[in-house]
């Protein structure tokens, strides 16, 4: 799914999720934090559909662990920020 690129070991600035609370390992904010969102947009610039699938899988996992957070809030947090594709006229 990543185009044959080998995953690299985690680096200090990677802003990875810490479960089961789904907070950022670097800044402590809700994951994906604003920094991670930018990193993801850059990483998946050529395959936004794959980014949507990845974040939907994260949303599914987080919703099982964050049962007290309203689903609507989780949807906004994980996928609601994604840029919408332009519709042809």
Largest sheet data: 2 strands, antiparallel
Number of strands: 2
Our estimate of the beta-strand percent is: under 5%
Envelope shape:
globular
Instruction: Give the strand order of the largest sheet, numbering strands 1, 2, ... along the chain.
Output: 1-2
Number of helices: 3
Low-confidence stretches: none
| Mean pLDDT score | 89
User: Helix share of residues?
Assistant: 40-55%
What is the CA-CA span between the terminal residues? 31 Å
Structural class: mainly alpha
Can you describe what's shown?
It is globular, with a radius of gyration of 14 Å. Strands 1-2 form a two-stranded antiparallel ribbon. It is mainly alpha-helical and 89 residues long. It contains three helices and two strands. β1 and β2 form a beta hairpin.
Kindly summarize this structure in a few lines.
This protein is mainly α. The chain contains three helices and two strands.
SSE inventory with pairings:
Elements lengths: L16 E2 L4 E2 L9 H10 L4 H18 L5 H10 L9
Antiparallel strand pairs: 1-2
Helix pairs in contact: 2-3
Give the tags.
89 residues, two-stranded antiparallel sheet, 3 helices, 4% strand, globular
